[in-house]
Design a protein that fits this description.
By secondary structure, the protein is α+β, with helices and mostly antiparallel strands. It is built from 16 helices and 16 strands. The longest helix has 18 residues, at about 80-95.
């Protein structure tokens, strides 16, 4: 993801006439200059309210007129509705703009937006997972954000990869709210100390695999979980250019680097460290029964694991390989501005307000989801390591072509467990992916 990071940092650092600029010293979000564009309603602001640049109102001349009401669709879960009610009440108190919240199941919102948006009945903000950005872009439902200097400055405090996950073809469409990834769960009765490196992890796996007990297990036939191990030595799914745009004609799942990594995964089965056919259900059941020392899983498993293992449960970041962190896959959710809104500036301000440090702290404490804002204090022994892992997570590609990758790679990883030639099965998987993508007409 180095190219993506270059684009993001360049966006925050470069200042060019006629283009968006950023002043990213990160101290307080105040700026000395104000940029205006007489041909649009998008105008920038030159000062902020608050001590750390978490809200911006600017002066009356440079800020678009406030609407009386902003509307947002919030995922229909009670804890999320309660959290955003409390957060938006603070927005109303600060800016004197009412916020109307409509409960709306997240995965049904796109269907609603496709009907209500063009009719002028959609909300100012709606909430979506980042991997739907391709469909959102193709349907023209979200506005590409014309962010001001101050807004860019504030956005610089968010998880960099999460921000990029809401860009598409070089345009920024959304403000990330929450992030999710997986980590290493440990039964300390078997593994008293978390491994720091993959070499240490594999040594423990070999030492603790005996009889019905396994030192390390995971869903090794699932690209979602195997991504950090496949990419550790240079494998990749789709190449990206300096703007973070994916090149679907360049697939890196059968390169020499990817083959070497998958051969390592195959060795886990050749050595008997995992039985062939192991999936998450099998690995999870054995871990709950106290027969696995380490397992890769996500925060959704914490409650069940705590009940089963009690004080013997520990969570750690994924270990390093060759002195570099393993990059897990992340799934992010965030706020998008309705393409048809008449309140694009203030809708963007609302999105930034409800995801700023204070709001994200409130949301985490009430709803329990990890924030995209990096300054939030995660005072939880199980979630804190997962939050740390999100800083080294790569978002799942947000393009429609990614849907053609999962099944061929799942099949390939299953064949790998059965001892088939790694280069051959990966070549076949990539050929199938290329064929399926070509039939999409892209």
């Amino acid at each position: 993801m180095l190219n993506s990071k270059f684009w993001y940092k360049g966006l925050l650092l470069l200042s060019t006439a006629g283009l968006l600029a950023a002043c990213g010293n990160g101290d307080n979000g105040d700026t000395d200059e104000t940029a205006t564009d007489e041909d649009t309603t998008e105008e920038t602001v030159d000062d902020t309210n608050g001590d750390n640049g978490e809200s911006a109102e600017g002066n009356d001349e440079d800020t678009p007129e406030k609407p009386e009401v902003l509307t947002m669709w919030v995922n229909d879960e009670e804890v999320q509705l309660d959290a955003y009610t409390e957060i938006t009440d603070r927005f109303t108190e600060e800016f004197d703009i009412e916020v109307e919240i409509t409960p709306y199941e997240m995965l049904e919102q796109l269907d609603g937006m496709s009907l209500d948006g063009p009719a002028g009945q959609g909300p100012d903000l709606f909430f979506q997972p980042h991997d739907r950005m391709g469909d959102i872009h193709l349907q023209g439902l979200a506005l590409d954000l014309d962010l001001t200097d101050d807004q860019l400055d504030r956005l610089g405090e968010y998880n960099e990869e999460a921000v990029l996950s809401f860009s598409y073809e070089g345009e920024q469409y959304g403000i990330p709210a929450v992030v999710e990834t997986y980590a290493l769960f440990i039964n300390t009765d078997i593994v008293p100390e978390a491994p720091e490196t993959m070499d240490e992890l594999m040594d423990i796996a070999r030492e603790e695999t005996t009889g019905d007990q396994y030192g390390f297990m995971m869903d090794a036939a699932n690209l979602y979980f195997t991504y950090p191990f496949i990419t550790a030595d240079g494998g990749y799914i789709f190449a990206q250019d300096e703007d973070g745009v994916y090149d679907t004609s360049d697939i890196g799942l059968n390169t020499p680097e990817a083959v070497e990594s998958v051969e390592t995964i195959q060795s886990w089965f050749d050595e008997g460290l995992m039985p062939s056919g192991t999936d998450l259900e099998v690995a999870n059941s054995l871990f709950l029964d106290g027969n696995v020392g380490m397992i890769v899983n996500g925060p959704w498993a914490i409650s069940e694991y705590r009940e089963a293992l009690g004080d013997s449960l520990q969570v750690a970041e994924l270990p390093t390989q060759n002195d570099e962190p393993l990059n897990s896959f992340s799934g992010n959710k965030g706020w998008l501005v309705n393409y048809y809104t008449e309140n694009d500036y203030w809708a963007t301000e609302l999105a930034l307000f409800i995801t700023n440090e204070e709001s994200s702290q409130t949301y985490f404490e009430m709803a329990g989801e990890l924030p995209a804002h990096t300054a939030v204090d995660i005072d939880d022994e199980f979630l804190a390591p997962i939050f740390a892992q999100t800083q080294n997570a790569h978002p799942m590609p947000n393009i429609p072509e990614m849907s053609q990758v999962w099944e061929p790679m799942g099949d390939a990883l299953n064949f790998v467990q059965q001892g088939e030639d790694v280069q051959g099965v990966l070549d076949e998987a990539v050929q199938q992916i290329e064929s399926e993508i070509s039939m999409m007409g892209q």
